[in-house]
Specification:
- The structure holds three protein chains of three kinds.
- In chain A, 40% of the residues lie in helices and 9% in strands.
- Chain A has 14 helices and four strands.
- Chain B contains five helices and 15 strands.
- In chain C, strand 11 and strand 12 form a beta hairpin.
- Classes of the chains: A alpha/beta, B alpha/beta, C alpha+beta.
- At the B-C interface, strand 13 and strand 14 of B face strand 4, strand 5, strand 11, strand 12 and strand 13 of C.
Chain lengths: 287, 275, 361
């Protein structure tokens, strides 16, 4: 086999944890898992979503003890230690990267949540423009501003899987928490939106109505929300593994989208990801 | 039979084979007799985790409900199974598949080539051969492992090496530790040409990493073996074991029902294998 | 098995269905936003029996897209297992010949000797199937080439089979269950001339097909050309890996299982859902993936449908409905792939015979 998929980090880490003695102790004491939630550059929607999950909120917080979670509790302990850390938002400042590395050391599992943390998300739209231009557009005084290009969490530290979505999906979060409880690897969604869309029996909006639907290259988990209402998917969950973005981009051109529109479609969420960049680069700048 | 006939099994004993591989002795909880043939497998797992196909590493004892699985913790299910303790219960379905062709071996020379944990399904087959030793001719076992530490079934390997009715060649890629076994250094393919077997009357049985089986099979074909004299045991990910879920298909074959043991010529004609 | 044929007036047909509707779930083609789809029917008036094709075939009412198969409860002694799902009696109305064949194919997969799929068998037995013959062709269908239409020939797999004669239907019956339903109606028995009329309709439809494929040497040709450039080119330029082809295919049977874990860690539910060989992780094992490239996955789909299925189940996996190419966003057409391979084969034979002629002087 020439192309071996990389062993994911959470595989190795879950493996280690399972053999760890403190894990056995934790099970004996029925101690809750220590949760940390950190927020970087984003809208905080995922953090909000965490306390907004109405269906499973009780069960989730019954099994988690909040150690650091600014939106839920202002008296957090930033230094940990944590069993599980959820990271919200992309990294756009050097200080954020410094803190992230410290958090990684204090955490057993670290999972980016939401598109910004997983794929760069909305903040990464700015990546195609120079930093100075962006700073000047937003701030009057740019002297104290030291921003960098937006990058997802896994470009700075090792991650143990990711909970995709914008905001993050409930199904994946529940899977992560229940997997933590019984000590197995989580099975996150790893196929395209089309699978979920067909399972629901939706009419394909891309084929039937020639709507520029990003479903074929987008990771599932949302339950094909937009196509279920006859709207094209706009890829808020970021790219699916091994997505063929160039073929879809060329199809959009045939449907009649302008190069600018196609470029925007592939850079709106997850422009730092190579899967989408391949599609965007056919129709736009390469920065 | 139904596709969801779950049975319960209890762990009776655990044997460490290597640092990462353990053998589990199970007993059926509900039934008194559990029959299977060498090379078949069980779908074994736990609710919440899923199921994995694991072949039997022991021989069925007539009138008994015990069976052994040798498990390396590498996947989602097997890592979970690895944590089992004595007395714990698991769910299983089985036995599934077609095992080694035990009717074919009478009067033949047997060449058994195993790599790593691939010895597990061949171990039950070897036990069967040794039970019927007078009905078959020469038996040669070539077993290769990555390092000395990775050799499984150390006690059985020593037993077989001590016997004079079975020729054994054990080899490792890296000789990293003293061992009581007589070991040679090199890949299994290095030792195949020197065997004094008549290829016209020999059946070869391979199990191990698919890439190993590829080179062993090609080596044997080069020596003059026919494709249908070589049997391989394949591994695929499967969900059902009953030939419905489609995951294990190789061309026109379901590994779970038509296999896991195939004649080399029967399976290598399809794409998407390494054979 | 009991067989018979009658003529039923269309005025009589709908009220009869209404009567059956009181007892059964009624499922059939309805129009939705300009497209036809199979759905549960509230009123018989919604039924659009002159439909052309649907995205998802009637398979989804027998082999469900998502289905819970069993529930586990952890007890001190181990586990209690309870099979889930109970089939409700239902009538599938207006199943075209290709989809009837597809159900026969699925029967071969799920109800074969050895192991039977519990949930499929349950729903299959609870389903009364009323087929209908097409009176026209769709732009992408080629059932005549695959031997699955336009008339449904086998005497199995259906309870009723309708043929549209304009003001009335020819209704063919199969099995005692069908006889019981039709008895109260006191219909006029069909005659030889009615069957001739049916054959006539079939012939008329047969001449309309635009898409055709020659299946005489198809299996060998596909299996011989597993490394043909068409696979790689199509996979890179067109295939999105979106799985639409396999999801809409009426004979695709692969599924995946997922366990839902209760937060109490006592209750678990195992559900299964349609899976697709076009999905990257489908053939993944520890340490590798046997179909890592998109090319290998696309090749698996086409080869399975047009070639290896024959050895596996004794029939083609493709029933010629054309759904995979209709609903493929980039329009990948498996007949075009097969034809391209055939052209290369022909050129090869021509070149070889030319070379032979040259040698012979």
């Amino acid at each position: 086999m020439t192309n071996l998929p990389k062993t994911t980090f959470y595989e190795t880490i879950f493996y280690r944890l399972r053999r760890g003695k403190d894990e056995a102790k934790r099970m004996m004491e029925k101690r809750k898992f220590r949760l940390g939630v950190f927020k970087y550059t984003c809208c905080a929607g995922c953090e909000f979503q965490l306390i907004y999950f109405q269906k499973h909120i009780l069960e989730i917080f019954q099994n988690l003890e909040i150690v650091y979670f600014q939106m839920g509790d202002s008296n957090g302990k930033e230094e940990g230690p944590f069993d599980i850390v959820l990271i919200d938002g992309a990294i756009t400042q050097a200080e954020q990267a410094d803190q992230l590395k410290k958090v990684r050391q204090a955490a057993k599992f670290l999972l980016p949540i939401g598109s910004c943390a997983v794929n760069g998300g909305i903040p990464a739209i700015k990546n195609s423009t120079s930093e100075l231009e962006i700073e000047q557009r937003v701030y009057q005084q740019i002297a104290p501003i030291h921003s960098m290009k937006a990058h997802p969490i896994d470009e700075y530290v090792r991650v143990d899987g990711c909970i995709k979505g914008c905001p993050m999906g409930e199904a994946d979060l529940v899977e992560a928490v229940t997997s933590l409880l019984i000590g197995k690897q989580p099975n996150f969604f790893n196929y395209s939106v089309c699978v979920e869309c067909k399972l629901k029996g939706n009419l394909c909006v891309l084929v039937a109505y020639k709507e520029p639907c990003m479903g074929p290259v987008t990771n599932a988990g949302c339950g094909a929300l937009c196509p279920s209402y006859g709207r094209p998917c706009y890829a808020c969950w970021g790219p699916m593994e091994d997505a063929n973005a160039p073929a879809l981009a060329q199809l959009f051109e045939k449907i009649g989208l302008s190069p600018d529109d196609i470029y925007r479609k592939f850079t709106q969420y997850g422009s730092p990801k190579s899967e989408f960049r391949k599609g965007a680069e056919l129709y736009g700048s390469k920065t | 039979m139904d596709s969801i006939d779950y049975q319960m099994a209890q762990v009776l004993d655990i044997q460490m084979e290597t640092a990462a591989i353990k053998s589990y002795l199970f007993t059926c909880v509900e039934s008194k007799i559990f029959r299977f043939s060498p090379g078949q497998f069980n779908m074994i797992g736990l609710p919440g985790v899923g199921e994995a196909a694991i072949s039997f590493s022991s021989l069925a004892i007539p009138g008994s409900n015990q069976f052994t699985h040798t498990i390396a913790g590498v996947g989602n299910v097997t890592r979970f199974l690895e944590r089992l303790e004595i007395g714990r219960r698991v769910l299983f379905r089985g036995p599934f598949g077609r095992g080694w062709p035990i009717e074919e071996i009478i009067g033949k020379d047997l060449l058994i080539v195993a790599g790593g944990i691939g010895l597990a399904p061949l171990r039950s087959f070897l036990f069967y051969c040794l039970e019927n030793r007078n009905r078959i001719r020469d038996v040669v076992l070539v077993y290769g492992a990555r390092t000395t530490d990775d050799m499984v079934f150390a006690k059985d390997l020593a037993d077989w090496q001590a016997r004079d009715d079975i020729e054994t060649i054990y080899c490792v890629d890296q000789y990293n530790k003293e061992s009581s076994l007589r070991l040679q250094v090199g890949l299994v393919t290095r030792f195949l040409e020197k065997l004094e077997l008549d290829y016209r009357n020999t059946l070869a049985f391979l199990c191990g990493p698919e890439i190993m089986m590829r080179f062993v099979a090609r080596n044997l074909l080069f020596q003059g073996y026919a494709g249908d004299q070589i049997y391989v045991s394949l591994e695929r990910r499967m969900r059902c074991g009953t030939g419905h879920c489609g995951h294990c298909q190789i061309g026109a074959k379901f590994v779970c029902q038509d296999g896991p043991v195939f004649q080399y010529s029967d399976i290598s004609r399809f794409a998407d294998t390494l054979l | 098995m009991y067989t018979d044929a009658f003529l039923i007036e269309k005025d009589q047909f709908s009220p009869w269905l209404e009567v059956l509707h009181q007892e059964f779930r009624l499922i059939g083609p309805i129009e939705e936003n300009g497209f036809y789809t199979f759905a549960e029917i509230q009123s018989v008036r919604d039924l659009a029996l002159n439909y052309d094709t649907t995205m998802l075939g009637p398979r989804k009412f027998i082999y469900h897209p998502e289905e819970k198969i069993c529930a586990f409860r952890k007890t001190p002694e181990g586990f209690e297992i309870e099979p889930l799902g109970k089939a409700a009696p239902q009538i599938l109305v207006g199943v075209h010949s290709c989809d009837l064949h597809a159900i026969l194919v699925l029967d071969k997969v799920f109800l074969k000797k050895g192991f039977q799929d519990r949930n499929y068998r349950m729903w299959r037995e609870a389903t009364v199937i009323m087929g209908i013959h097409c009176t026209g062709v769709c732009p992408n269908c080629f059932c005549a080439s695959m031997g699955t239409g336009p008339l449904f020939e086998p005497k199995e797999g259906y309870d009723f089979l309708l043929t549209d004669f304009g003001d009335r239907y020819l209704i063919e019956l199969l099995g005692e269950r069908a006889e019981k339903f039709i008895l109260p109606l006191k219909l006029q028995r069909a005659t030889e001339s009615d069957f001739k009329k049916k054959q006539e309709i079939g012939r008329k439809v047969e001449n309309q097909f635009k898409k055709k494929i020659d299946t005489t040497h198809l299996v060998d040709i596909i299996l011989r050309n597993q490394n043909h450039p068409v696979w790689k080119r199509t996979a890179e330029e067109l295939c999105l890996g979106c799985t639409n082809c396999t999801m809409v295919c009426p004979t695709c049977f692969c599924y995946n299982q997922k366990d839902e874990i209760g937060f109490d860690l006592i209750h678990y539910e195992r559900k299964r859902y349609w899976d697709s060989c076009q999905e990257l992780h489908f053939a993944q094992v520890h340490g590798g993936n046997f179909r890592f490239t998109r090319m290998a996955r696309l090749r698996q789909f086409v080869t399975h449908k047009l070639a290896t299925w024959v050895e596996q189940f004794g029939c083609f996996g493709c029933i010629g409905c054309g759904r995979c190419m209709t609903w493929c966003p980039t329009g990948i057409d498996l007949t075009e792939i097969a034809k391209e391979i055939m052209v290369t084969e022909q050129n090869k034979t021509i070149r070889m015979s030319e070379a032979q002629q040259f040698e012979n002087g």
